[in-house]
Design brief:
Butyryl-CoA Dehydrogenase, subunit A, domain 3, 5 helices, 52% helix
Length: 172
């Protein structure tokens, strides 16, 4: 494992993926429901309790950020991390869409009720946006060498490549 291979995009994607996963354990909604014959009931509901399938989907999508970090640090070649960076950018964009949809549409158990969005929802939105940005940033940065300064796949300085010696074609 070589941590020098990791760039800003991988760090952002991994940390925000973890933050998105943590946000699912925090309260997303504060419910106050008045039902006939009952008093006002108030409670906080976490992301795991409030969602049916969205919570599992967000957890799977958040794992792409951690996977990108691990794959980039362990792979010696660039193509595998670059392919995963593209998938991570897509996963981050999809997670933003899912979190925004959950912020716009709030329906509680048993029908529409008065809700207040709690800290987990806003942390989830920020984490999803950072997750998408980290994926796109990671996909964009391929560490290509500048003509006057050669680097290896990690971005560390490297000696210039050897000159290619032309070999004449064989005669018949």
């Amino acid at each position: 494992m070589d941590l020098r291979r990791l760039r800003a995009g991988e760090w952002i994607a991994a940390l925000s993926g973890i933050a998105l996963l943590v946000s699912l354990f925090l309260p997303w909604y504060g419910y106050e429901a008045t039902r006939p014959g009952l008093q006002v009931v108030g409670t906080d509901v976490t992301g795991w309790e409030a969602f049916a399938v969205t919570d599992v989907l967000l957890a799977v999508l958040a794992s792409f950020g951690v996977a990108l970090w691990i794959v980039t640090a362990t792979q010696r070649t660039v193509p595998v991390p670059m392919a995963l960076a593209g998938l991570t950018a897509l996963a981050g964009t999809l997670s933003v869409v899912l979190v925004v949809a959950r912020l716009l549409v709030t329906v509680g158990p048993g029908g529409p009720i008065s809700t207040a969005r709690e800290v987990g929802a806003w942390l989830g939105l920020v984490a999803a946006a950072a997750f998408a940005a980290g994926g796109w940033l990671s996909m964009r940065d391929e560490r290509l060498s500048k003509p006057e300064r050669t680097t290896d796949a990690t971005g560390s300085p490297a000696p210039p490549p050897a000159e290619i010696e032309p070999i004449p074609a064989p005669r018949r």
